[in-house]
Amino acid sequence: MSKKNKEFVEKITAMEDDFAQWYTDVVKQAELVEYGQVRGTMIIKPYGYAIWENIKNELDRMIKETGHSNVAFPLFIPESLLQKEADHVEGFAPEVAWVTHGGNEELVERIAVRPTSEVLFCDYYSKNIHSYRDLPKLYNQWANVVRWEKTTRPFLRSSEFHWQEGHTAHATDEDAKQETDRMLNVYADLVEHYLAIPVLRGRKTDKEKFAGAKYTLTIEALMHDGKALQSGTSHHFGTGFAEAFNITYLDENGKSQFVHQTSWGVSTRIMGALIMVHGDNRGLVVPPRIAPIQAMIVPIAQHKEGVLDKAYELRDQLKSLVRVDIDASDKMPGWKFNEYEMKGIPVRIEMGPKDIENKQVVLVRRDTGEKEFVALDDLQERLPALLEEVQQNLYDKALTHRNEMTREAKNMDEFKQAVEKGGFIKAMWCGDLACEEKIKEETTATSRCIPFEQEKIANSCVCCGKEAKEMVYWARAY
Amino acid sequence: MSKKNKEFVEKITAMEDDFAQWYTDVVKQAELVEYGQVRGTMIIKPYGYAIWENIKNELDRMIKETGHSNVAFPLFIPESLLQKEADHVEGFAPEVAWVTHGGNEELVERIAVRPTSEVLFCDYYSKNIHSYRDLPKLYNQWANVVRWEKTTRPFLRSSEFHWQEGHTAHATDEDAKQETDRMLNVYADLVEHYLAIPVLRGRKTDKEKFAGAKYTLTIEALMHDGKALQSGTSHHFGTGFAEAFNITYLDENGKSQFVHQTSWGVSTRIMGALIMVHGDNRGLVVPPRIAPIQAMIVPIAQHKEGVLDKAYELRDQLKSLVRVDIDASDKMPGWKFNEYEMKGIPVRIEMGPKDIENKQVVLVRRDTGEKEFVALDDLQERLPALLEEVQQNLYDKALTHRNEMTREAKNMDEFKQAVEKGGFIKAMWCGDLACEEKIKEETTATSRCIPFEQEKIANSCVCCGKEAKEMVYWARAY
């Protein structure tokens, strides 16, 4: 179908009817992603990539401001290197894509396409760290990684995905602990202040932690359908990898010590969160701070004399203030309204002959649909302020939704009822793996995090009734 | 060896003695790159990556300003897709890394790790281009690609490298031709104005063109040792790929037409050019416009009261004007001088007790070694101006070198003598592949480009003596 004939945007499935289909429809209709030829790979299209690039730019700035340097490590890992840390290889080997031939030659040793790069950084650190003066090492890379997943979905679980992975080495356990905390807070800042998504901060249980980590910190967000999404993780490795890779340094007294390491990552999965937290039945909703286009000018009756000139003039006036674009194509305004609502552009600016006469424009918010008439003289002040209001409202709505969808459970009956309603469940836990596994088996809910902000809901474990150690957030999750 | 004891930078091989070893020494001592574990892969270290990031940021801006959108296409290509265009697969198949297993399963079809992404974009365009209204498609991606090379060297030829690859589709041959020209000019602008490297612009011979292209445009630079380096290429595909992948659109008259395509790329190879054009026996020399640190403050007698305070004050005054850093470590000034000369930092700022007393600093240029005393009051004006002088001088020096190393040859004797002296050789060519191959066989020089600026040096081909068609630049090359 040519665009000329496509006067109306194709309808998308209502999220109440089929959330998974709604998601797929939005991803497609908002032109974010298309499937690649190899199973589970994705083509990130210009609009999807522009959003990711804005997220990336903010996060990259934060990573640099906290003292880290970008590097580029290889895509390829020799099999023997991947096997050096036992827990780690066990966690990742089943989903590795293996290169066995270079050109026409069969390789002597199989090569893993990196599923994550801990072992590469460890190998490097073992050769490049000698003295306490070489510490800390604070490296980050923006990279693609591959995990051969059984079931895949755009952004949420793709066999190749894009991310940043930080890998650091420190002189003391305390330094590594502080780094793990610091980066979790950077992630929370990014997701809350730029993506307008409130997050829970906490620690993963041992069952859910990263393969090879001492502990994993996580930020967890709640999607519109009541399922949770892990949105960023920061791992404290202790000296586990350092012992496996023999990464030592001479301290100030000339004594050999193992380094203490961390790693942390945020991936294109976060795009899935963005879609599922803010989207609605008209499509995507992009928070202004990361929107590639913050305001789209749609001229009304643009064939009338002077309308297009005025619209372009307006664009030129606004472009140093906000990311603004204009659609002067010959499509009907109604088509354009649908198109930019589908793409989640935060504000639409309508301008027709009457508006020009009255020296005003109409601003239409994507998040609430509210319209307001604004005098041209006031627009340079009003538009940026409105964008901030939209940003704040998206966050507030998401927070309200999460609060409404967070329930307490004191026993398994309450737990099971809560699971059926969706959302987070706050429940006490004895700390035993057996209870965590039983809960998962009976409800398909998993432990999301042991929050830093603990509450004492009850004295006993929601599952076994024995003495509770901690409160845990549980949920069905992506 | 711990840094504490490393009071003197290790010597590097003189370029006159062994240019290849000099290159390897600079790459290592300036901390640009280290080898990865898999043959021919590289770890780009913080300083190397910071230079690449600056190049990337400038080029990305230019690519966007010329109307292109960034996207991300998959790393993986099914073997059958790679085979769709005959010339293309013939050119790349011998150096493909093949994935044969996903986790524990053997794949039904082998997967290529992309050596370049033409076929992926073609497959996408065949599904996404329908009408003339969908054209042009102007896509670019920053990506890693893999070519299983026999001999590798950091930056110059690595089995994995980083680049941007633009892939565009147009309604007419003329549009595609203009795009091919436009991007070659963007590359020339980048390399000349930011990397301070003069380039020859021209067309590749059919022998040297890209596998599957109608023609290839190139920019060619001359290294310090007299060998040439291809520094960026822009390919016009005509309708070759469109026919193989059936990429058609309906024109304004409703008639089905093949699209006309281009692709163009600049890679981390350009880092090799940077090193080999500007470097000297004291190490790397980085042009100011892409230098991560443009000026390094080295306090003199920093243990004396007030010196460090003043040095930090200076840094704070300068940091909004230039990219400035300070080395306040307890290493000796002489060690620091060597270190930052090795890293090619354009200007060193020395400041000691006497300078503070005299309200001045000493500026030392990396390119010429010249020193000048500058009053603190004049520094904010002088430093940026000096950086521009350094930038210009690097370009001028490289241009003078290239001019001195460019010779004419009217017959094979002259050609052979010229080849032994190194540099570019301007010689007439009849246009026959046989002569081009003979020249390569007898001299190891290859045709670098048929320059846009033609000169008529002689009437007959330098090789066969038959009527000459064009003047060609020849050289031994990386």
UniProtKB/TrEMBL annotation, chains A, B:
Transmembrane segments: none
Stored SMART domains: ProRS-C_1
Catalytic activity: tRNA(Pro) + L-proline + ATP = L-prolyl-tRNA(Pro) + AMP + diphosphate
Superkingdom, taxonomy of origin: Bacteria
Family annotation (InterPro entries): aa-tRNA-synt_IIb (IPR002314), aa-tRNA-synth_II (IPR006195), aa-tRNA-synth_II/BPL/LPL (IPR045864), Anticodon-bd (IPR004154), Anticodon-bd_dom_sf (IPR036621), Pro-tRNA-ligase_IIa (IPR002316), Pro-tRNA-ligase_IIa_arc-type (IPR004499), Pro-tRNA_ligase_II_C (IPR016061)
Keywords carried by this UniProt record: Aminoacyl-tRNA synthetase, ATP-binding, Cytoplasm, Ligase, Nucleotide-binding, Protein biosynthesis
Domain Aminoacyl-transfer RNA synthetases class-II family profile: 39-287
Cellular compartment(s): Cytoplasm
PROSITE patterns: AA_TRNA_LIGASE_II (PS50862)
Membership in a protein family: Belongs to the class-II aminoacyl-tRNA synthetase family. ProS type 3 subfamily.
Function statement: Catalyzes the attachment of proline to tRNA(Pro) in a two-step reaction: proline is first activated by ATP to form Pro-AMP and then transferred to the acceptor end of tRNA(Pro).
Name of the protein in its database record: Proline--tRNA ligase
Lineage, top ranks: Bacteria, Bacillati, Bacillota, Bacilli, Bacillales
